[in-house]
Design a protein that fits this description.
Helix content is 16%, strand content 41%. The protein has 215 residues and is of the alpha+beta class. It has a domain at 2-70 and 113-193: Clam (outer membrane lipoprotein receptor (LolB), chain A), CATH 2.50.20. Mean pLDDT is 75; it is low at 1-31 and 122-131.
Amino acid sequence: MRSSIRRAVHGASALIVVLALAAAKSPAPASAPAPQASRALATKLQAGQGAETSFRERLEDPIGGTHERSGRLRIESPAFVRLDYGDSGEAITLRPDGGEWLQPGLGQMLKFGASGQEVARVWRLLLGTSSEGMTERRRTARGWTIVPSDSELADSAWVDLDAAGMPARLTVFTGEASTNIEYRFTGWKFGPPKGKTAFTIKPPKGIHVIDADRR
């Protein structure tokens, strides 16, 4: 199980960032407002909008080298996340009830139940409210360091905002040697939510479905 979770983190769902940039499930209490690193985005999500952006993913691994790829990210309240990677057909979804990771190149799709929530928990800790197990420290004029109090999947993260207060870059430090994963976001757009069906993947014909919670 631990290895399948780490694959999800180190592969694509590492930055299932916004399950809590979507700290958006419900407005935070006045005594614990959304962190500055996610406040502008969380405000729009809490108001019922869906958010979409392009991203560039860069994985730096001292053993495997540097790998880059691009895609699009969509998020909605309550805690819906979807990443689509270019024209490869690879996609990842996370929802409160689970999620999927479609990997056409491997002919398989992983279905997440509790394991998906374990991955998602990291990002709720990283970008949730201060009362939910994270510490936020200003690093630059528009940059913050996020430190989760209890996470085996990530040591810390850097969040850098653009002039509008939207996430422009997110770097997660995993604690494994010098491995880190960076996402750069461009072109945030907002509109009506699409709902759960847009965050649910049905396996194409010929794709082997694997229950990640039973691996």
